[in-house]
Amino acid sequence: MANTMQFDLVSPERSLASLAATAVQIPGADGDMTAMPDHAPTITTLRPGLLKVEAPEGSSEYLVTGGFAQINGDSLSVLAEKAIPVAEVTRAHLDELIEDARASHEAAKGGDDQTIVDDAAKLLADMEALGTHMSL
Amino acid sequence: MPSLKDLKNRIESVKSTRKITKAMQMVAAAKLRRAQESAEASRPYAERFNAVMAGLAASVGGSDSAPKLLRGTGSDDVHLLVVMTAERGLCGGFNANIAKLARAKAEELRGKGKTVKVLTVGKKGRDALKRDLGDLFVGHVDLSEVKRLGYSNAQDIAKDILSRFDGGEFDVATIFYSKFVNVVTQIPTAQQVIPASFEDEAAGDDSGAIFDYEPSEEAILADLLPKGVATAIFSALLENGASEQGARMSAMDNATRNAGEMIDKLTIQFNRSRQAVITNELIEIISGAEAL
C-alpha cells in the first residue's frame, strides 16, 4: 500500500502546494474529513476552514474558503477560491470571513428555512472560534 | 516646399514620438510577461475545475432537477453580451476586434428578433459600441483603478451577472474577450457562460473513477456553477490582459519602425534642401563676382 499520495492545492490565482502527503484534513461542507492514501474516490465541497496537510517533510496548514476537493485513491486536489498559508493569515483576512459569515447569517434570518439559518449561525461561530484557535 | 526650419522641427517631433512609442513597447513587453505568468498560474485551477464540472454536468445535466444555470431558463429570448475590453487604447486592433465581434453577434441576434442587452467591462469597448448599441447598455464595470487583476474582480463581475440572471433579466449570457495565442496573434472569442456548457472538456475527463459526492451531486453542482461563471470570467480577464499587452507591444513596435522610416525620409529631404540652398547661394556669389 502506498503511504503517500499526490496532494495539490490550487487557487484561481496560483498553485499553492504540490507535494506528497500522508494525510490531509479537509473542511468538507458536511463536516471535516481526513483523506489518506487509497481513500474512496470522493468529491466534496468546502466550507471555510482550515486544511491540514501531513507530509513526510512536516505538516502545514492553510486557510481555505469556497471550492471543492477531489479525492482519488492516489491523489488529492483541492481547488479553493481563496487559500492562504496559515502563517500569512492576518486578522484582516479573518475579519473578512467573519463579516461574510455574518452577512449570510443575516440574510438567512430573513428567510423561513430554519436549517439554513442554523448553518449560517454555525459558520459564524466556527469563524470566530478559528480566530481564537490561531490566536489572532 | 517646406522650409529648412519646418523640416528640422518635423524631424525633432517624429524623433520624440519614436521615443514615446519605443518606451511604450518596452513597458508593454514587461507587462506582457507578468500577464502571461498570471494567465499560466490560473490555468491548472480552470482546467481541473472544468474537468470536474464536465463530469458532474454529464451525470446530472439531463435531469429536470438540474440547476437553472446549467439547464437554462427554457427560452433564449433575451441575450446578455458581456463585452470585455481594455481600459486603454494604443494597442492596435485589440479593442476594435472584440467590439466588432460583439457588434456582429448583436446584429445577428437582433435579426432573429431576440432582445439584446450589453454589459461592458473596460472603457474602450464601451466607447466603441456606444454609437451602435448605446441604448442596449445595462451596465458597465470599470477596471481602470485596478492595478493587478485578482480573482475578486472576476467574482464581482460574476456576482453582478448572476444577480441579473436570478432577477430574470436575461436567458443567455455570452462573454466576449480576446484569446492570447502569441504576441502577434490574438483571437477575439465569444464564449457562452450561462447556461454553462462544458462540452469541450468532457472528452478529457476519462479518469473512469466513480466518485462519492458529499453532499449530493445536485447540491455540489448548484454550489459550483456560480463559481464556474467566476472562473470563466477570471480566465477571460487574464487572457484579455495578456492579449492587450501583446497587441500593444506589436502595435508600438510597428509605430517605432514607421517613425524610424519617416525620420530617414525626412532627413534625406532635409539634406537635399540644405544642399539646394547652398548651391543657390554659391551661384549667387559666383554670378555676382562675374558681373564685376
SSE class of chain A? alpha+beta
CATH superfamily of chain B: ATP synthase, F1 complex, gamma subunit
Oligomeric state of the chains present here: heterodimer
Helix content of chain B: 55-70%
State the end-to-end distance of chain B: 33 Å
Structurally, how many domains make up the residues of chain B?
Answer: 1
N-to-C SSE string of chain A, H for helix and E for strand: EEEEEEEEHH
Write out the strand line-up for the largest beta sheet of chain B, numbering strands in chain order. 3-2-1-4-5
CATH topology of chain B: Pyruvate Kinase, Chain: A, domain 1
Return the average pLDDT of chain B rounded to an integer.
88
Helix run count of chain B? 7
- Main β-sheet of chain B: number of strands, strand sense, barrel status? 5 strands, mixed
The CATH homologous superfamily name of the largest domain in chain A equals F0F1 ATP synthase delta/epsilon subunit, N-terminal
Termini of chain A, distance in Å?
40 Å
Figure out the total of helices of chain A.
2
In the predicted model, the low-confidence regions of chain B spanning at least 5 consecutive residues are 201-206
Low-confidence runs of chain A (pLDDT<50, min 5 residues)?
Answer: none
Number of domains of chain A: 2
Question: Roughly how many Å is the radius of gyration of chain A?
Answer: 16 Å
- Beta fraction of chain B: 5-15%
